[in-house]
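Appendix B: complex inputs.
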Amino acid sequence: MLNAFFFILLAFAVQPLAAELSIKITDTEQNPLPYTVIELVNSQYPATADAELAQVVQQGLTFQPFVSVIRQGTAVEFPNLDKTRHHVYSFSKAKTFELHLYAGKPKAPVVFDQAGIVTLGCNIHDTMLAYLYVSASRYSAVTDANGEAKFTDLPATDFQLSLWHPWQQQPAPTQQLKLTNDSIKTLDIKLDIKQQPLPKAPKRGFGDN
Ligand SMILES: [Cu+2]
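Resulting structure:
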């Protein structure tokens, strides 16, 4: 009896103040919208660098993934899995860098220490295009093929929810979120975005990649 009592006490003591949030994004035609970046902003929860290195791979003359989200301060590797060499660069304000023509894995990862959107390209292959969203907030994610993203273990507090998509014509409206303790919230958001084909390798002209 006493043991059971302590167990219950313990269960209350370790219960974190947490909330869960699931978001589903659809486009103008109600299709799931992948590659949407969701950022939950609250100045009390600034980004801390991701513990693990992120990766943007070059394979089949494309970048994988097309859109990545990292927390500010995170280091990213750019391994080249193709036989041909790539020359990865960005001239974006949030990060200007170049990885000169290389095969395999460049020696050092690139650290993204400023928040913002980094557009990636390759100097050799003009069709190669990808985006890195460097988040100033600790809580950010990108929607999967089903247009979905899920946050678990969020602090139960107020957030501003902002969205970004590489194909947006204008910034998506932000909204305020109030998360209460132990709540499970589901949001369906429709964005005024027309989906486009992903960047893909040209059919001919580059030989064996
Ligand atoms: Cu290339």
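Residues 2-14 form the longest helix (13 residues).
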